[in-house]
Amino acid sequence: MARIRLEGVTKVFGAVVAVDDLTLTIEDGEFFALLGPSGCGKTTTLRMVAGLERPTRGRIFIGERDVTDLPPQARDIAMVFQDYALYPHMTIMENIGYPLKVRRYARSEIHRRVREVAEVLQIADLLDRRPGQLSGGQQQRAAVARALVYPPQAFLFDEPLSNLDAKLRLEARSFLKHLQKSLGITTIYVTHDQAEAMALADRIGVMDRGRLLQVGSPIEIYRRPRNTFVATFIGSPPMNLLRCRFQQAEAVLVLGDGQALALGERAEALRRAFRDGEPLWLGIRPEHLALAEGPGPTHLAARVYAVEPLGVETLVTVQVDAERIALRLSVDEPPVLREQVWVRVPMERALFFREGGELAL
Ligand SMILES: Nc1ncnc2c1ncn2[C@@H]1O[C@H](COP(=O)(O)OP(=O)(O)OP(=O)(O)O)[C@@H](O)[C@H]1O
Ligand SMILES: [Mg+2]
């Protein structure tokens, strides 16, 4: 087990800066998720840690060792890819035993160890089959078993659950979390699925266009996203953003359609952070919004755009001004389509972002 450190790591492919000056320390035993949209540089980062790609600039350390110039096999890490990369012509036994075979373990020892991990992963009865004869979930477990059979200093996962159906994905998710916590092996887990990152990770690093935007615990990132990109990338549905203007004299925020929201106790802080008339984004999570009976200083008139029952709660999307905003409501009688409603915005829960997207308050 070991901590992993990236120092100023950059990867340039021709004209594309895939990873841009990444500095990051993943602690010993930590479950770290790298989260970001397609093409933001997650896989490239992971491949550099694995030694499959050489950084254009910067250094990578595993434990105390500078591994930047070491080949993959000298790094003592195991990687599980999105497509599992099992060898199709080998049986599951041979696949799982492969890391031991290349290390010249005796045949009987290989069989013993493979059986042991296969029992844990509940694929012991599949060892004679070939990968093509397994379901997606079984293949995933076989790939994890292969990573486990020779316990590495670190695990690298690249979207390992994306080929599974929704139910199996949840099962596999809790299995992976349990396994990682039981073994305490330092893990980097790449995903573009924010729910997966939230559920699994001790800390999340959010990436966009090769840059690391924010690192923190799932709750920190959920509660205090550093900018509107992170705010709208995390959460389902994401944080609502309302474009408004700060009107200092009246201590209100004015929306494009002229509706005003009283700032109350937040007014003083806004006065210090924003100029009079300055445009800004008010950010509020769907679970913090509620319906009100009628007009009020922090109520907005809105029209119901869609109603989606989720079981425990109902997701209601309403149109306010030019924007659509989402509410998560746990009420017995949700509003109906096109109904005119009042939405209460609890100012104490609101975040305020500058026009450029950066969090101010
Ligand atoms: N071998 C390569 N040659 C040229 N460009 C590449 C290469 N590998 C990746 N890129 C580019 O680098 C950027 C980052 O790619 P990367 O695969 O790391 O993204 P990602 O975050 O893993 O995306 P996804 O979620 O779609 O898997 C992309 O613009 C991609 O097109
Ligand atoms: Mg990728």
From TrEMBL:
GO terms for cellular component: ATP-binding cassette (ABC) transporter complex, substrate-binding subunit-containing. InterPro entries: AAA+_ATPase (IPR003593), ABC_transporter-like_ATP-bd (IPR003439), ABC_transporter-like_CS (IPR017871), ABC_transpr_MalK-like (IPR015855), ABC_transpr_MalK/UgpC-like (IPR047641), Mo/tungstate-bd_C_term_dom (IPR008995), NA-bd_OB-fold (IPR012340), OB_MalK-like (IPR040582). The keyword Hydrolase applies. Gene3D superfamilies: 2.40.50.100, Nucleic acid-binding proteins, P-loop containing nucleotide triphosphate hydrolases. SUPFAM superfamilies: MOP-like, P-loop containing nucleoside triphosphate hydrolases. Pfam families: ABC_tran, OB_MalK. Keywords: ATP-binding, Cell membrane, Hydrolase, Membrane, Nucleotide-binding, Translocase, Transport. This is sn-glycerol-3-phosphate import ATP-binding protein UgpC. One of its GO terms (biological process) is carbohydrate transport. It comes from Candidatus Thermoflexus japonica. Residues 4-234 form the ABC transporter domain. One of its GO terms (molecular function) is ATP binding. The keyword Cell membrane applies. Its EC number is 3.6.3.20. PANTHER family: MALTODEXTRIN IMPORT ATP-BINDING PROTEIN MSMX, TREHALOSE IMPORT ATP-BINDING PROTEIN SUGC. Transmembrane segments: none annotated.
